[in-house]
Amino acid sequence: MLRHPSGSWLVDSEMNRLRDNQKGIRMAENEVTITVRPNGPFRVEGPIKLVDSNGQQWDLTGKPAVSLCRCGASTKKPFCDGTHSKIGFQAAEAAVAAEEAQKQS
Ligand code: FES
């Protein structure tokens, strides 16, 4: 048994649950998730380092997530500036699906 900071005693099963929860929190804080937005950017969430071709690092302080341009038309590359909507960007998976539909009709 171990004494919890609140003053109560923890039995072994409670200690294990607490340890597992703390591990889960630590893993979640270090996890990076990249979400492909439909006909839009890559949304990158989590602790990342973003560097250019010269090794210079962007300052992402205070940004828990960034959106990276996938259409190639952003004026703020590598970040998305919303231009994909204006140009009607269609992601490859949607374009292939549309092409396949045309072939079948
Ligand atoms: S994906 Fe948004 S501007 Fe390119």
Automatic annotation (TrEMBL):
All copies of domain Iron-binding zinc finger CDGSH type, residue ranges: 39-90
Gene Ontology CC annotations of this record: cytoplasm
Keyword Iron: yes
An MF annotation (GO) of this entry: 2 iron, 2 sulfur cluster binding
Domain of life the protein comes from: Bacteria
Alphabetical UniProt keywords: 2Fe-2S, Iron, Iron-sulfur, Metal-binding
Protein name according to UniProt: CDGSH-type Zn-finger protein
